[in-house]
Amino acid sequence: MLTTTVILGLVLGGTYALLALGLTLQYGIARIMNLAYGELTLLSAFVVVALFQGLGLSPLLTLPLVAAGGYGIGWLLYAVMMRPLVARSQGRGRLEVDSILATFGLLFLIQGGLLLAFGANFTSISYLDRGVTVLGVSVALNRLIAFGICVVVGAALVVALKTTRWGLIMRAVALTPGSAPLVGIDVNRAARQGFALGSALAAVAGASISMYQTFSATAGVVFTMKALVIVIMGGVGNVPGALAAGFGLGLIETFVATAIDPGLTLAATFAIFLLVLLWRPQGLFGARR
Amino acid sequence: MIGITRRTSLRALSLGMVSAAAMTAGMAAAQDDTVTIGYAVARTGPNATGAGITTIPNYELWVDTVNKAGGLAMPDGSRRMIEVVEYDNRSANEDIVRSIERLATQDEVDLILPPWGTGSNLAIAPLMARFGYPQMAVTAVTDKAPEFAERWDRSFWMLGGGHDYATGLVEVLSAARDAGRINDKVAVVSVADGFGIDLINGARPAFEEAGFELVYDETYPLGTSDFAAIMNGAQDSGADSFVAFSYPPGSFGMTKTAQSMNYNPKVFYISVGGAFPIYPGVADGKAEGVMAIGGVNADSPTIQDYFQRHTAFVGNPPDSWASAITYASLEMLAQAIERVGLDHAALAKELSTGVFDTVVGEVRLENNQLRDLWWVGQWQGGSFRAVNPADKEGASEPVIPKPEW
């Protein structure tokens, strides 16, 4: 019973954490609160499904492609749309408000485009939908893959941010974007990379979601909300925090669903969210400001 | 600088007035030739999916069909083309109400077609009644239909209530249990949202009355995407029948989860989404034996013809629950207009009392409601066939136990 809960919870948490990684990067490094994050995820999910149904390309094969595409779109979005906002904002507060408004508009733009291109139908494909037994618990293979991607990508990000020079630059920009130029860091470039990388992760999350979940062109906001809760709980811009919060949330939801009542999963999520906001508004793993 | 004298401005004014008058005259003449039909449907927002599957394609197919045949037939034998005024209601009740007002007062359309969804139809009902338009509330499932039909006498409720669907399902399961094919234990889950609550509230007493034991009875929040824990609980409950009062994402998610964990109940019932044409694809081609809400008489030639036309026009087949009823409501409207014209009072009376020949067969409303409906359907040999009410003409025999995934 307990192993079932733990394993199902970890797998669910992995899918949540994967969804949140990109958003936390975008907010942490580029300081853009991207409300269109869920729509970018959906865009990638639709592309993966279209390639799967149209050309018979396996989602695992197209995953690197959409990740690269996501990077490109993120790069363009930052250069064309976000850069002017950053340039004219004096302080952090102004940029946050502006970026929230701008990406809120972007949300509807992408949603409209998706509705036009892919229609309003629910979309769902059957790919690797068979069960795999892990320690006696049957888990869907596609979810297990999402969990695996999350662990690999999350660990790689944590290591890269901690140990490489590139990671140092990213952390410097995230911590004090005002002082980073003093030591010769191109803040604009670093922020653009951070935003693009976040979009690439959104695309990866979308590709994995397309394998196991039913979605429609209007479901983006659900993904954004989930990612936002995890990002804020883990500490904004904190990659290990997002991973931990994602796994924690998955475990709690599964535990509540099996031991108490499936009807209370959402209530439990938001109760914990509220507690975190009340007692640690900087997030479970966020540094005090 | 150009001096504008009183004379030139007067001249300009009169010229403008004449041309405006000429334009309105032109429009009035055009209005005599066409029938304007307005609707405010959800092109965006959470209702866009439902409207995009059931409502909009059927409106467009019908308008296309009528106009290709030369237009709507009038009582005097003439034909008038349909002109459509469409608004996006953005899935918001305020927008729906505003659009209906606009359609009625500014566009002055001849007829208004309803939006998708129970809530949207309830939101516009008082307004439609005030402006006197007949309202063919097709995609509204409500147990209070008799009350509403009485309160707004030009409203028509055509998809039954939650109680009807729940009772239909209990009938199917009772028959199977009495034949010794399933035990008397049922695992039931329901989405904690309007429709799921309606159905479970109808189902609990019906199951108990029929002597079933609900060994697993849980609700889950709207938006749940992971059903592993729930399906585990249902599998461990020892029930032969799995019943889910669910919306499409949940229906699909539970199907996939049941398959991946190899959960093979003898009855697998899901609600909305089970009758969608994409369901067999979602179930990886193993939909055979899955039960769901709705159903059509798949052997009827009119239904087969409708499915073919829908596929040719829209690109995919219709869903096997509310789509055919939606199309039938439009056919009723056209036939009523042919008999009595566009006067709203006469039209409402004809819809209420007349007999109509539609894709779902001969239709006659009872107290402004369509009661001759299918409650339970099952995937059999690639089509979603109606199995309950069992005594209705065209019903198929349910296959229980369902073959394994």
Task: Spell out the blueprint of helices and strands.
The complex is a heterodimer of chains A (289) and B (405).
Chain A: H1 2-30, H2 37-55, H3 59-88, H4 92-118, E1 131-134, E2 137-140, H5 141-163, H6 165-175, H7 187-212, H8 220-234, H9 239-260, H10 265-279
Antiparallel strand pairs in A: 1-2
Helix pairs in contact in A: 1-5, 1-7, 1-8, 1-9, 2-3, 2-4, 2-7, 2-8, 3-4, 3-7, 5-6, 5-7, 6-7, 8-9, 9-10
Chain B: H1 6-33, E1 34-41, H2 48-68, E2 72-73, E3 79-88, H3 93-105, E4 111-113, H4 118-131, E5 135-137, H5 145-151, E6 155-157, H6 162-178, E7 185-191, H7 194-209, E8 213-220, H8 228-236, E9 241-245, H9 248-260, E10 267-270, H10 279-282, E11 291-293, H11 301-314, H12 322-340, H13 344-353, E12 355-358, E13 361-364, E14 376-380, E15 383-388
Parallel strand pairs in B: 1-3, 1-4, 5-6, 7-8, 7-9, 9-10, 10-11
Antiparallel strand pairs in B: 2-3, 11-14, 12-13, 14-15
Helix pairs in contact in B: 2-12, 3-4, 6-7, 12-13
Task: Characterise this structure.
The complex is a heterodimer of chains A (289) and B (405). Chain A has 289 residues and is mainly alpha-helical. In chain A, 75% of the residues lie in helices and 3% in strands. Chain A has ten helices and two strands, in the order ααααββαααααα. In chain A, strands 1-2 form a two-stranded antiparallel ribbon. Chain A is globular and about 55 Å long. The mean pLDDT of chain A is 87. Chain B is an alpha/beta fold and 405 residues long. In chain B, β5 (135-137), α5 and β6 form a beta-alpha-beta unit. In chain B, α6 packs parallel to α7 (194-209) and α12 crosses α13. Residues 15-31 of chain B have low confidence and may be disordered. At the A-B interface, α1, α4, β2, α9 and α10 of A face α2, β8, α8 and α9 of B.
